[in-house]
Structures are given as structure tokens and as C-alpha cells.
């Protein structure tokens, strides 16, 4: 593959722009972690979090073990804020608010949201109409569960456009990608505040003028969310 875009780098960590349709770990072909490690042969790279294959956008890697531990603690303590963009067709059960519930295994590696709250996935979101029948969602993760946003969106009655696992296959296969993008990250580290924002560059639907206008309005996504 072509070289990855390094969005930011210092002595402790690197922020990478992950392309859509690239596995995080190697499966039948090399995954993201392998490519990042090759770009930094003198460092031992540690992923701080992960992204699904269909998801594009910002992902953080520590460049040494101490940084990995420190950044991992921020993530575990919910002090590393992550914001995502998603596109979906249809009318959601609600247009903004919270999605909370335990994640339960479903068929063939999928997950489903339960009404119980023993160890819940917590997602906060706002949304805006782009064109009739389509909305852009800005989502903030308060936990880091597998498929969390994808399951949250399905529970709202609006699975992510192009999501081959959670949207009806006939509809999902018409899209040129899965429309989930890791849009922004904000955290404090070693006395400094870091905030990174990267609009999506892949996917025809993300490039529509109506969508681009909303993304520009959400240039500082943390302003749209109150604390839990």
C-alpha cells in the first residue's frame, strides 16, 4: 500500500491517518500496526486504541513503553476524548442524546445492545440533516467497546451507511465505503493539551457540499458535548 499519512509526531507518540478498508491487525495481509511499525524501525510501536477495518481517521500509537502506559491510563480513565463522524439514512429514534447499554454477543461476531447497565457502552451524539433522508452524526465515545458506535447507531434504527455487518447487505453493498470516521482526539499529556481534528477524505458521500458544510461547523467537536 501507499505510505500512511503521519498527522502528528513527537518523541512520545504518533498520530496516524488510517485509511478505510484496512485491518488493524494483520489477517490475510499486513495490517495497520505492521505498516506503522515499518515507518518507525527505531521505535517499538504500541497502539493506544484501535479502529475497525471500515473506519478511517485518527489513531494514536505510543513510541515507547512508558508513553504506552501513560496514554493507556488516560484512555482507561476516559481522559482521552474521541469524536467520530457517521452518515446514515433514515429517521433515528432520537436526534441527539445518549445511547447506553451492555454489549452482548450476537451472531457471527456481531454485537447487540441490551437494556441492562452492568458494564455499559456509553455513547453521546448530536446529528443534523444533510439532505432529505440522510443525517450526519457527531459522536463522542465515553467507553471503548468493540463495534460500540456501529451497534449504537443500529440501536437508534439507523445503521451506518455501508456497514456490511449491521446494515442490510443489499443497502450496505451500494455504498463505496463504511461511513464511520475517527474525526478528532483531545487529551492532556505531560502538561500540554493536544487536540487533533481531521475531516474525512475518502468516500463520495462525505464529500457532498451539504456534508462538508456541517463538518466545517463541527470543527471543534468537543464544544458540542457536556460532561456525563
Describe this structure in words.
It is a single chain. The chain has 228 residues and is an alpha+beta fold. It has a single domain (5-224), classed as Pseudouridine synthase (2-Layer Sandwich), CATH 3.30.2350. It has five helices and twelve strands. It has helices at 32-39, 65-76, 148-155, 169-172, 209-217, and strands at residues 5-9, 13-18, 46-47, 56-62, 81-89, 97-101, 103-105, 111-113, 121-131, 134-141, 180-189, 192-197. Strands 1, 2, 3, 4, 5, 6, 9, 10, 11 and 12 form a ten-stranded mixed β-sheet that branches. A two-stranded antiparallel sheet has the order 7-8. A hairpin with a 3-residue loop joins β1 and β2 (13-18). The longest helix is centred in the N-terminal third of the chain and has 12 residues, at 65-76. The protein starts with a strand and ends in an 11-residue tail after the last helix. Residues 12-154 form the Pseudouridine synthase RsuA/RluA-like domain. InterPro entries: PsdUridine_synth_cat_dom_sf, PsdUridine_synth_RluA-like, PsdUridine_synth_RluA-like_CS, PsdUridine_synth_RsuA/RluA, RluA_PseudoU_synthase.
According to CATH, the fold-level topology is Pseudouridine synthase
Tell me the name of the CATH class.
Alpha Beta
* Fourth-level CATH superfamily: Pseudouridine synthase
**Could you give the order of the helices and strands?**
EEHEEHEEEEEEHHEEH
Strand content: 25-35%
Overall average residue pLDDT: 94
Give the count of structural domains.
1
Number of extended strands: 12
